[in-house]
Design goal:
By secondary structure, the protein is mainly alpha-helical. It is 36% helix and 0% strand.
Length: 44
């Protein structure tokens, strides 16, 4: 579920919880390369 386009629909508690998650265990989501295409290193 993505709230990227409707940030005005989150309650204050939801905003607080999501920010806390991103500042702690979710920091890896910010720097994730999951949306990039894989690199093919094979030579064949």
């Amino acid at each position: 579920m993505s709230y990227a386009s409707c940030v005005d629909r989150l309650t204050n508690d939801q905003k607080t919880r999501s920010r806390a998650m991103l500042e702690t265990t979710g920091i890896s989501l910010i720097y994730s390369k999951g949306d990039e295409a894989p690199i093919n290193y094979s030579t064949t």
